[in-house]
Amino acid sequence: MSYELRVNPIACDGHGLCAELLPEVIELDPWGYPILISAEVPPGLTEHAKRAAAACPTLALLVGKATGERG
Amino acid sequence: MTKLALTAHRSPALRLPRLLAGISYYDIASLRDHEERYGPLPLWGTSGRRRPGRLIDVVDASGLTGRGGGGFPTGRKMRSVAAGPGGAVVVANGAEGEPASCKDRLLLTRLPHTVLDGITLAAHAVRARSAYLCIHGQETELRDALEHALAERRAVGLDPVPIQLRGIPGRYVASEQSAIVQYLNDGPAKPTFSPPRPHQRGVGGRPTLVNNVETLAHLALIARYGDRWFRGAGLPAAPGSALVTVSGAVRRPGVYEIQPGSSCGLAETARVIRYLADENAGQCGPCMFGLPALADAMADLAYQGCTGRAAERVATLAGLVDGRGACRHPDGAVQLARSALRAFEADVRRHDQRGPCPAAARPPLLPVPGEADWDWA
Amino acid sequence: MVIDLHGPGLWYTTRAAGLVTLLLLTASVLLGVMTAGRLSSERWPRFLTAGLHRNISLLALVFLTLHVGTTELDTFVSIPVIAVFVPFAAAYKTFWLGLGAIASDLLLALLATSLLRNRLGYRLWRCVHWVAYACWPIGLAHGLGTGTDRATTWVFTLTVGCAAAVAAAATWRLVTAMRLGAR
């Protein structure tokens, strides 16, 4: 079961908690907004990804089952 | 059958059009039309007061450069041909090899006498004993128009050195200047190794002046109006006007007479990207902050430069912003920026190292809307 | 252990639990302001602020339950259970107790929507969270109005301290928000 990450750029307000909680996959650009290094959640980091999504103050980080489709 | 859209760029303040002044959509300008507009052929030296080389001085002072793509200073070329051991040759290159270009065809079919004047004046200035006008052999329409014009001139004995019309093969490289010279020397129409260059040893081993027909047309007007007149248009570094062919997905394709360097591609791009940056919806961080930063970087490259890093910064920001908005708005701006870096590569390097070109300070060309309505409803 | 339903033990517990609830709620508000203001450093990441805000709010609920529970068990004053949730349903100090009920309801709504945020969606949660800002000042007023310790200096000082802290934080937040515009 693999999961994929997506950022809703409209909801995102650049709080940056996601990058703190999932630094393996999420980096911040110069203005504090997330850059997804990979859309797929690496194996073993699923719980961390879900925690990061739950921690987002605006619920802009989404973790969903990998569909294989491009957003 | 090639269709031509004839439009002259009319701009009273800049005193254009010049070459294309009075051009007719349908008719060839006859010798009489030509002389009515420009006056008779000003062959200097007939009164004995002016020496043939005087025209070379004037062309030198005017800053005229080759309009066939090479951009070599015409006065300098003429001087080196004239400095040869005599018996020079003038070759007018009307073999427009570039498929999408029709500016030379336009001149030759509608304003042949301007070009032919230029050939005769140049021949006189470099003391040439032969003169050729070369076109691609398969261009029958061109050939007919030119033969008619030449007949008009022969009837009144206008050209001391008769101008010989020559058809050359239709391949792209056949119209390169050394290829033409080799062909006129009864060889294949292929470029040759230099040295020697045509101005040293060309047709028949003699110093040969090879010029694009548009260059010679400008020369014909410079001979009448002088170097200061010529410099009245264009920039100090790129004086005079030039013909360009605009085609493709544009509203008004055609041949335009413009002032060279009238717009800096980087400056125009910077203006458009600034507009796009201002037009962001204010919803997504990367677009809200990244596009203005990209616009700043592009403006820096276009108007400041000199740091050696401006282009790099544009490229970095483009990569940061690409694909990170909810819609494709930032992607569009990124594509524009990236294509500008590619298309204006030479300018990018110069701007980065030496600062903006004079064209960057010119009034803007593209229409970019001013304050937006800010109406989201 | 036998709970003395007549002696002052329960009463002390109620007052103490109420005070701790106030302190915890004050801390929660301050942490909330920190979250919104993105206050963080190398050693103090943002998820720590957010996590503390959440956990301290939950802890406040624990002490609130203790506060309400001991009030109910205490037979010195009879307060119907319904008055815990329905404002102004008690006979004793109707208004001030009513405020307490309101504050409790708001806190419960806050916590419930926060825990179910993923399912409820951001907008509903945000709406409730905004309304629930009222929880803290109403709770403070309830404490001042019902509290029998208001005359005690240290309790009063503590209350004033909490108020000052929240006032300062709110001012800071307003000022920085105005200066930064969007954020």
Describe the structure.
The complex is a heterotrimer of chains A (71), B (377) and C (183). With 71 residues, chain A is α+β, with helices and mostly antiparallel strands. Chain A has helices at residues 17-21, 46-55, and strands at residues 3-7, 26-28, 34-36, 61-65. Chain B has 377 residues and is of the alpha/beta class. In chain B, 42% of the residues lie in helices and 11% in strands. Chain B starts with 30 loop residues before the first helix and ends in a 23-residue tail after the last helix. Chain C has one domain (8-177). Chain C has helices at 8-36, 46-73, 82-85, 94-115, 117-120, 122-131, 135-146, 153-180. In chain C, α1 runs antiparallel to α2, α2 (46-73) packs across α4 and α4 packs antiparallel against α7. Classes of the chains: A alpha+beta (71), B alpha/beta (377), C mainly alpha (183). Chains in contact: A-B, A-C. The interface between A and C is medium-sized, with 13 and 14 residues.
Features:
heterotrimer; B: 377 residues; alpha/beta; Rossmann fold; de novo design (two linked rop proteins); four-stranded parallel sheet; two-stranded antiparallel sheet; 14 helices; 8 strands; 11% strand; disordered N terminus; disordered C terminus; C: 183 residues; mainly alpha; 0% strand; globular
Q: What is the CATH top level name of chain A?
A: Alpha Beta
Number of strands of chain A: 4
In the CATH hierarchy, what is the architecture of chain A at level 2?
2-Layer Sandwich
Greatest interface: A-C, 13 and 14 residues
Counting structural domains of chain C, the number is: 1
The overall pLDDT average of chain C reads 88
**Helical coverage of chain C, percent range:** over 70%
- By DSSP (H or I, 4+ residues per run), the number of helices of chain C equals 8
Percent of residues in beta strands of chain A: 15-25%
Distance between the termini of chain C: 54 Å
CATH topology of chain A: Alpha-Beta Plaits
Low-confidence stretches of chain A: none
**Oligomeric state, counting identical vs distinct chains:** heterotrimer
Strands of the largest sheet of chain A, in order across it?
A: 1-4
Count of distinct strands of chain C: 0
- Which term fits the overall shape of chain A? globular
